[in-house]
Amino acid sequence: MIKIAQKTLDDLEFDAVVAQVAAYTITSLGRAEIHKLQPFDTKEETTEALKFVHEFVSSFENDNRIPNHGVENITEELKLLRIENNFLDVEQFRKIAALSITTNTLLKFFKKFHEYYPLLFERSEQLEQTNLISNQINSIIDKYGEIRNDASDTLYSIRKSIQSVRTKINTSFNAALSHYNSAEYLDEIRETVMENRRVLAVKAMYRRKMKGSILGASKTGSIVYIEPDTTHQHQRDLNNLEFEETEEIKRILLELTDFVRGFKPLLHFYQDYLVLLDVLYAKAKYAQAINGILPELNDDQELFLKDAYHPLLLVTNNEEGKKTFPQTISMATESRIIVISGPNAGGKSITLKTVGLLQVMMQSGLLIPVHERSKMCFFETILSDIGDNQSIENHLSTYSYRLKQMNYFLKKCTKQTLFLIDEFGTGSDPELGGALAETFLEVFYEREAFGIITTHYSNLKLLANELPHIQNANMLFDEKTLLPIYKLVIGQAGSSFTFEVAQKNGIQYSLINRSKKKIERGKIRFDKTIAKLQKERSKLEKTERALKQNEVKKELEAEKLESTNQKAQKKLQSYQELYDSNQRLIYLGKKIQDLGDKFQQNKRKRELMAELFKLVQIENSKKEKLTNKQKRAKLKEENRLQKEVEQKVAKIRKEKKAAKAKAAQVPPKPKHTFKVGESVRMDDGRAVGSIDKIEKGKAIVNYGLFTTSVSLERLEFVKPKK
Length: 722
Known about the structure:
The protein is an alpha/beta fold. The protein folds into four domains: 10-148 and 260-290, CATH 1.10.1420.10; 151-245; 296-546, P-loop containing nucleotide triphosphate hydrolases (Rossmann fold), CATH 3.40.50; 679-719. The strands form five sheets. A seven-stranded mixed beta sheet has the order 1-11-12-13-9-14-15, with helices on both faces. A five-stranded antiparallel beta sheet has the order 19-18-17-16-20, with no helix packed on it. A four-stranded antiparallel beta sheet has the order 2-3-5-4. Strand 4 (212-217) and strand 5 form a beta hairpin. Helix 6 (90-112) crosses helix 7 and helix 19 runs antiparallel to helix 20 (605-622). The radius of gyration is 45 Å and the shape is flat. 28% of the residues are buried.
């Protein structure tokens, strides 16, 4: 069972990685699932999760991309389905249908491309593939979110009656409008809509001369809004029919809810499946962003990270256009602990965090930014002590807190542990703290735990040299500028460059010399020796880089010369062929000229023809000889191509001729003469209305709840007046 403490995740800033991964999700449930991301409990779960993500990443690089998996959350709808005699609304059914369609599309896709995505196909096979849910919902609700007229026979009958009554309302209202307008009882606006009903805008002085219901008045009181009696009677019928329509829709939705309720468990599985795909998608997109890969996973205790990047630092530097320096670290049973030393700000802590964070990411099912030849193993426990851990709440000093941490480490540390300690042993007297830190390190070593520590203590560097399975390491510095190179070197301890850095920052040499006298001569010599060795190593690194650069330059120059030589050879060959061709033509020209001169002198045609025939035979003998069968095949192919071209040309000419004749024969379509009362629709619309009035090339079209003025040229005839 793998157990990684929350403190370790906090020390390594794992929550920041999780936040970056969550940003790639496209569903709220997927985002919530990513925020719960933790290292897996077992090695088997981790391996399976990594392979799933690796397989999903491959979909970004081939032509068979995985279809969209984004849908809305239906958790609330699933809760409502538990309640008997309750029904879902149209929007909720639309969400369920979308989820069903999306899931079944994905199931079909993985079945079709099972060879590309074997793991995802195997997971999809656990779900039932059915279109019953979406088909039933779509048979009731159309794509615009409206209940279909044919959802039931009763609804169809009611809506037909509603349409009929609305037509009566419009007809009666238009008659009243025409009558009272002629009598000049109406205001200039003539009509308006109140409470979703058409009313006449009657001048206040004529309100008693009209039969109807007053629904309101203007702010000044000069206009009274009246619904004519005839229209009001039809409106009551319409209200009754609309009530019946509402009740029938409720009944239909209740019936549909009962149908969908039978698929509630399957819908749960569908939603969980899409959430899983969203989690995999986010992990895969994050892997793509950081160039994450699946390293080789081994059962042995071996960790080899080649060109490993700290993912958070990599993302930040990429955004700012800065370079990120990778590290290469190797740990095995024979070299299981690394002691990194060297001056501050050299990259010791970030190297330690890189190893820890990549290990936690891998054990959480995330691909990591390393070279493809990297190898990783699993640790049951990862312990960390990084940063300033002074506990204000418990009134503990930094050293007291660190001692509590070491006590916890001693309890948990086993062969399957990776421990990460930054500034090991600090916080107390250097001599005493260093001795205690050395003892702790010996215990970790005896328990065969894996670990990385950073330190300035010389006794820990010496211990790493004395014990066979501990390695010293240092972060390279430029010996002249004392600036970090951000490269980890295994096998040698690093100097803190204490006095060198002080001198570089302007501290007087006399003060530095006095300081040197205050400490043991052996310690100075030891640190000086380490600094000297580190400088030598840095020189060797530079020499090696220069040699490699020269080698690369020479290889490039050799390739360039080879390419130039090949081009020259090709050009020379081309010139030679051109020269030979020209020489042959010159020879033939001279030969024909000689024959012409000879014929001019003796006028012997037979002799001339014999010489020409002989010349032709000689030239033909130099050409490639073809058998009769090859000649016939060549001639046949040439004839076939010729015929094919002629047929295509003839067809195109025929089509053009026919099109021209048809254009000349078809008379222009006669324009329709519109009349009042005819049913029409606009050329770019679907709604049908009736013409109330025509004047000056425009028509007043009545759509039931409103009227509009439209140019006759934009109208299409639907049916004549009843």
